[in-house]
Amino acid sequence: MAGKQKLTTIGGAPVVDNQNSMTTGPRGPLLMQDVWFLEKMAHFDREVIPERRMHAKGSGAFGTFTVTNDITQYTRAKIFAEVGKQTELFARFSTVAGERGAADAERDIRGFAVKFYTEEGNWDMVGNNTPVFFLRDPLKFPDLNHAVKRDPKTNMRSAQNNWDFWTLLPEALHQVTIVMSDRGLPKSYRHMHGFGSHTYSFINANNERFWVKFHFKCMQGIENLTDEEAARAVGEDRESHQKDLFEAIDRADYPRWELKVQVMPEKDADTYHVHPFDLTKVWPHKDYPLIDVGVMELNRNPENYHAEVEQSAFTPANVVPGISFSPDKMLHGRLFSYGDAHRYRLGVNHHQIPVNTPRCPYHSYHRDGAMRVDGNYGSTKGYEPNSYGEWQEQPNFSEPPLAINGAADHWNFREDDDDYYSQPGNLFRLMTPEKQQVLFENTARAIDGADDEVKKRHIRNCLKADHAYGKGVADAIGISLNDVN
Ligand code: HEM
């Protein structure tokens, strides 16, 4: 009620004056005993927390997932237990390269992270709006980010750094082709698909394993911006995606996505012609068609951006019984990196921040640490095994053994499987001539500023995917194919 709430210090003492600091006489210096001034300034000095190393600029909302089709033959995850079942969730969408204050309408991939608060723990689906990624080895991830973020000397984004790196990695061409296509610049977060991208696994009640890829199909329809429209959008409003999502939910125009899966029986992985754990490749739908699962709806805006969006913490390590990992080493790199980032960005007890807290009971034996606010498991035992039956492991959730063999080495996957061109070529050939032209021109604008050798290297990569792709890019850049080889 206006006028009724009373201003206090964090200790609860009344603040008598929030307009005038305490000074010695009307023109004199501040007094150290003005503890309200000291507290207010000290808190302000610490308001900024580290931003996410990438995906720093984002928007979030709460919502609901509803099962529409029975997939219990593939997974025992309780979230999918019956048609009609609903689960609460929180989603955060983001751009990748820009900092926390970056403009939304930039050519970039978009993060698509969803935290499902299931009765068996949080399941985080930390994906993107693209089905593939630039890399196959997590060792290269810091390099990727250094290449797409600011140059260490100029502090500016650098086409040279960006394209020098991308063009030296043949496996990046598929993702680069998507980012340079019309889909590389969504009109808003409501108008893009989402993908788990990696291969994950499903485990059913009979303890059978399947490989699975997750797809979120946008029900609002795909809409994109041209580079020109984006420049105008950024000029008018740097928060165009945040505004679009927030206002749509505010007026009860709730955005929705259909969750679908591609499912591969475990044994197929040995013989399928596409490496099933290669994050730079898709599984053609004719081989593994999309199977309906349910609908995700976003229907509640956060009350407070910092508390709920900035402090949200997603990790692919958060899986639930019936959903698990795969031999994809990119995924393995991520299983470490996210929790590590959360411990740095939010602290070791980040799971106690309400947006991150499981909606089911949880007991880990992890105790103490900065900002432990949940009672710290009180007087219960802190060790296991114990004679009291407290917090026992749950072997009934163990997964079927996974056969893996091979000698330890720094295996060069580029030699083992060097076909990084047929899938980008297929994607190029699927595009209409108009979309191909858009791809050429977006590429030419984006690569402008890189030196000729880098441009020629990109053209050579595109030529390997499809001659017309390389030729189109060369023409748009203004380089003759005779000068390329
Ligand atoms: C954010 C690491 C690949 C999607 C992040 C963050 C880190 C990270 C450290 C910041 C986390 C935080 O501070 O909360 C990595 C590494 C990768 C990788 C090491 C590869 C080895 C990917 C891939 C995808 C992806 C392949 C999508 C398929 C995201 C998303 C976010 C994110 C959506 C933002 C999550 C949010 O909204 O809070 N990544 N990442 N990343 N990453 Fe990755």
Automatic annotation (TrEMBL):
Q: Which reaction does it catalyse?
A: 2 H2O2 = O2 + 2 H2O
- Show the Pfam families listed in the entry: Catalase (PF00199), Catalase-rel (PF06628)
Q: Which InterPro entries match?
A: Catalase, Catalase_3, Catalase_AS, Catalase_clade1/3, Catalase_core, Catalase_haem_BS, Catalase_immune_responsive, Catalase_sf
Give the active-site positions: 55, 128
Q: Does the keyword Heme apply?
A: yes
In alphabetical order, the GO MF annotations are:
catalase activity; heme binding; metal ion binding
Per the record, the similarity remark reads: Belongs to the catalase family.
Q: What is this protein called?
A: Catalase
- Origin species, per record, is Methylophaga nitratireducenticrescens
